[in-house]
Amino acid sequence: MKELEILIIHLNGTEVIINCLKSIFADDASAKVTILFNATTDKSIEVVGKKFPQVKFYITHERLGFAQASNFLAMQSKAKQIIFLNNDLIVSKNWANEMIKTLKAHSKCIGVQSKVKSFYNRNYFENAGAAGGFIDKYGYPFCRGRIFDNVEKDKGQYDDETRIFWGCGVSFLVNRDEFIKRGMFDEKFFMYAEELDFCWRTNNQGMEIWYSPKSVVYHMGSFSVNYEKINFKKEYYITRNHILAFLKNYSMFNILKLLPTRLMLELISALRFPLKRGIPFVLSLPNIIYYFIQRKNIIKSKLFSEKSNLNNLIYPQSIAMEYFIKHKKTFKDLEFGE
């Protein structure tokens, strides 16, 4: 059995996927890579087939969400460890080996995130994942190296191998058997926050997610989504899925205690950013209400547990209040996780 397989979902962008594969094989010429061409319409399949005949691939004609596509690839793999890797990045030397080292160094660890830096400005972290993810008590995610729109310069301040709450799917290694055992990604999420939900579920069950600082990737960010314009589909899934993860992974006691404040914060955000947050929030409400009503049936098969002590991984205050009111712009400012 091959110990490691790299799994990539690709929509379009021939140059992007070629650069990604070049960096992978420059680091390890024998790397096992599998691509799902997800309703690809450009020449990516033809070009990859000619330049990298060693790459295994599948083709779908109907576009799958990231969660469903990732689960499909995981089920096809026979490797012990798998890495979900975005197509719009390049990897650094020994990036995969460093993740495996981190995984093996911690007995309860089943998932590891790389350090994610900007492809365009390589001295800085990238918005997605940065140096590992956390949440506040209301379920809002943030990262070491990036809180809301404040992205930090990488000065080595997060070069410690540490346990994190969630790992970003940009470059995320998991033990394949554990990934399947714990329910994989929830396909109802379609795209965005499926890794937050999976990691939250994993933490609740007493297992761990870690950050590997010596595993570095350089990420373009939202290549498959129009990043320059307000994309209502993207904002809808982000808004909806963060709340769904909240409803799935907290106990009913915590939901009833925290949900009113969470909804108040959502309303404030919607009023402040009516196009980016307001409309997506309104559109997601029917789905959220249905999810809340059906919660008991939905989580029945998801190995729900909330027995683990996660006090060191969940920030006890509102990250929005800390950032916008108290002007705490960095993870270090929060005096959290020290």
Topology of helices and strands:
Layout: E1 4-10, H1 14-27, E2 33-38, H2 44-51, E3 56-60, H3 66-76, E4 81-85, E5 89-91, H4 95-105, E6 109-118, E7 133-136, E8 141-143, E9 146-147, E10 150-151, E11 162-164, E12 171-175, H5 176-181, H6 194-204, E13 208-219, H7 232-249, H8 252-272, H9 274-293, H10 295-298, E14 314-315, H11 319-324
Parallel strand pairs: 1-2, 1-4, 2-3, 6-13, 7-14
Antiparallel strand pairs: 4-12, 5-13, 6-12, 7-8, 9-10, 11-13
Helix pairs in contact: 1-2, 6-7, 7-9, 8-9
Structural key phrases:
single chain, 338 residues, alpha/beta, 9-stranded mixed beta sheet, 3-stranded mixed beta sheet, 11 helices, 38% helix, globular
